[in-house]
Amino acid sequence: MNPPPIATREVAREERFSDVWAQQLDNVFADVAPYYDRANAVASLGLWNWLLRRFMATIQIHPNERVLDVCAGTNAVGIALLAREPSLDLHAMDR
User: Fold this and answer.
1) More reliable by pLDDT, 7 or 86
2) Using an 8 Å Cβ cutoff, are 29 and 95 in contact?
């Protein structure tokens, strides 16, 4: 029985890019990080801050809650959450 197509693609992707991911990706992110928030503003056609405010308006948080922000980028959401509720136990992760 053959593996499903997506599994086959993931195996091929791992074989082809594992060196890049292990050795070069950190350098790429280090180069991009200073411009990441500016790129969000451009990519969102200037709506990034509005989108962040709208997203924040949908989040219900309470003092001392634990929060996990996955794919946090420059942690704009985490920073906004902590500004609203400094007692949060916030963990953010990205590549």
Assistant:
1) 86
2) yes
